[in-house]
Amino acid sequence: MLSYPIELTPDSNGTLLVTFPDVPEAITVGENEDDAEVQALDALEAALEIYFSEKRLIPLPSKAKRGQRVVTLPALVTSKVLLANEMLQQNVRKAELARRLKVNQVQVDRLLNFRHSSRIEMVESAFAVLGRRLEVRLV
């Protein structure tokens, strides 16, 4: 799973400004630390969608400093981020991935939508046609 470090900065109105050193486009606010983390996940996912729509590699998280809070992407979203980056690195467009998977391009659009609940088996198939394998580990 991908865990992105966050910075919480007290704002003048009593809220917390949330920023991501690795993803400068992801900015949000929270009423308190718990709310800030909830808002941060939404802001991070929205910013990562911008990277993909602009066909830019999605930055992977840097290592958090000791005691620094992080926002961890869910496993399915993590796999989609890695898939999006792999497609960009291999210069494989959505239409080409759909052709290789023998599915409609709408299915690939959903597969690459971070907010869509895709089946993990479909993500695995996408990696397979790209010559890669998705692994899940318990730590």
Automatic annotation (TrEMBL):
Show the InterPro entries listed in the entry.
HicB-like, TTHA1013/TTHA0281-like
**SUPFAM superfamilies in UniProt:** TTHA1013/TTHA0281-like
Q: Which domain of life is it from?
A: Bacteria
Report the Pfam families cross-referenced here.
HicB_lk_antitox
Q: What range(s) does the HicB-like antitoxin of toxin-antitoxin system domain occupy?
A: 4-121
Q: What is this protein called?
A: Antitoxin
Q: Which gene encodes it?
A: ydcQ
